Amino acid sequence: MKTIYKVPSAITSRDTTYCPGCTHGVAHRIVAELLDEMGLTKKTVIVWPVGCSVFGYYFIWTDALIAAHGRACAMATGIKRVHPESFVMTYQGDGDLASIGIAETVHAAARGENITTVFINNGNYGMTGGQMSPTTLIGQVTTTSPYGRKPELNGFPLHVPEMLATMDGPAYIARGALDNPQHINQAKKFIQKAFTAQQKRLGYSLVELVSTCPTNWKMTPVESIERVKREVLPIFPLGEFRAVKGVE
User: Alpha-carbon distance 151 to 50, whole Å?
Assistant: First the structure.
């Protein structure tokens, strides 16, 4: 029988620790597939953050470090500059990257650091109880916005790819989603281009992945997928926002 599907060698055999319906596992899968397919697994260093994303070190088998909250891009910058032959990436959630770590993210992009970021956007602080994050939608109820996010009080959601795409340093910026097979395949292509940008030393690359958080959204997995399609994607549209010449 012909094998058409197998577990990537970069994926460990550990049972998942994520909540039912969480799409972190899907993101891990496509990252691991690409590390294998592109021959990067043994030369990769992943900087894991604080938050649900940090559990990735259980599941993706590469060299890795854990950064202080929000400092993943700063740590990745140091690693890449000292070991330019390594493939260096960060894997961060919206609370880590877009809130406490936004300065590190913006300045890594502005400098055109030759690192790659996979950015998980589930619209809240998942690990610590579902507090409002920079990507929480207007009107969305969280533990710190019990009456819904109000722009006059809390500001508007932060669109990270659109913001970074205005800068000269990034080589590749895109947003994908993990809510259906078509979008997952598209997200994998976006991440492949981001990895290629680093391999070609073209500069900073980031792919945001719109994700679910059924537990803190207080929804079933199916309901959370439906919410992504109905409420989240109209605010966070999918696509490529910046791709310099040479990114393929």
Answer: 27
- Which residues, in sequence order, are CB contacts of 10 under 8 Å at separation 6+? 31, 32, 33, 35, 36, 41, 60, 61, 62
Quickly name the fold that domain 24-243 has. Answer: Rossmann fold (3.40.50)
Q: Can you tell me the distance from the alpha carbon of 205 to that of 41, in angstroms, rounded to the nearest whole number?
A: 18
Best CA proximity match to 209, nearest among 69, 18, 75, 22 = 22
- In three-state secondary structure terms, 66 is strand
Q: What is the largest CA-CA distance in the chain?
A: 61
- Does residue 45 sit in helix, strand or coil? strand
Distance CA 92, CA 73 (A): 9
Whole-angstrom distance, CA of residue 220 vs CA of residue 170: 37
State how far the alpha carbon of 229 is from the alpha carbons of 19, 74, 131, 166, 235, in Å.
20, 33, 22, 26, 10
For the full predicted model, state whether its pTM sits above 0.85. Answer: yes
> Mean per-residue pLDDT for 93-117?
97
* pLDDT tens by residue, 19-34: 999 999 999 999 999 9
Question: Hey, how many other C-beta atoms are within 10 angstroms of the C-beta on 85?
Answer: 6
Using the 8-state DSSP alphabet, how is residue 177 labeled?
E
Which residue, among 177, 2, 192, has the nearest Cα to 87 in the 3D structure? Answer: 192
Phi, psi of 191 (to 5 degrees): -65, -35
Pick left, alpha or beta for residue 28 (phi over 0 → left; psi -120 to 50 → alpha; otherwise beta).
Answer: alpha
